[in-house]
Amino acid sequence: MCDRQDFVAVPPLSGSLTLGMPPAKTAVTVPFAHKTASFGVSNVLDLGSGKGYLARILANGFGLKVCCVDHNRDRLKSSLRVHKLIQQEQVSQTSLGPSGNLHTVAASIENWEEFMDEAARFFRLNTRLGEKELDVAVVGLQLCGDMVYRVIDLVSDCNRPGIRLCEFLVAPCCLHKIVSLRSKAHQASEVCLENIYKDIQEYLVERGFGDVHLGYLNIGYYYIEATRK
Ligand SMILES: C[S@@+](CC[C@H](N)C(=O)[O-])C[C@H]1O[C@@H](n2cnc3c(N)ncnc32)[C@H](O)[C@@H]1O
């Protein structure tokens, strides 16, 4: 499928950013965070953000503005709690004030229009007056089963003034839950690991994305990146 090398080497992060994170989670989250930061986009929409392991690294380790969306309120609360602890520690070490660069929205990703209003308001906070369009990277780490296809549909259908969803990065998981393939090219193919990754890439192309690329993340996880034309 693609060359694999377990334990992709990435520069180390401060210990507090991965505090309490199970080792397997750290192994995929840290390289995924580096990949996200490499886009050079300051706003990140983290879909299905869970306990916010990725978000806390992006916000506190890379200084990005992160809006987390998840339908599980308890997981969002946990994200904010850890983010605040990290912020307090950074404030006591640097004498800088907390930056408020992580926001959570309790919503189902299907309620896209609803939460995008809130996300857009958050991204717009403290931006330069007259800045017309904000670039946003949409990411989803360990998106379960066919959630990856739903996210692709939602992003490709989004045409919101003032926001440009320019980068797209996902790492699918629980692929055994996928029962059918979506792209015209692979619809009739067998639903197996190799075909699922090919299908996701082809589906992205059909939905108008460009520069689609599959890469290896770690411990058996792959990421797929794309740009929105
Ligand atoms: C496997 S977890 C991954 C969490 C996180 N991205 C991470 O890597 O730690 C999937 C997350 O997606 C959320 N989720 C699943 N379906 C969703 C939906 N339709 N709308 C919003 N969140 C959803 C779940 O609540 C869960 O937190």
Automatic annotation (TrEMBL):
Residues 38-178 form the Methyltransferase domain. It holds the Pfam family Methyltransf_32. InterPro entries: Methyltranfer_dom (IPR025714), SAM-dependent_MTases_sf (IPR029063). This is Methyltransferase domain-containing protein. It comes from Pichia angusta (Yeast).
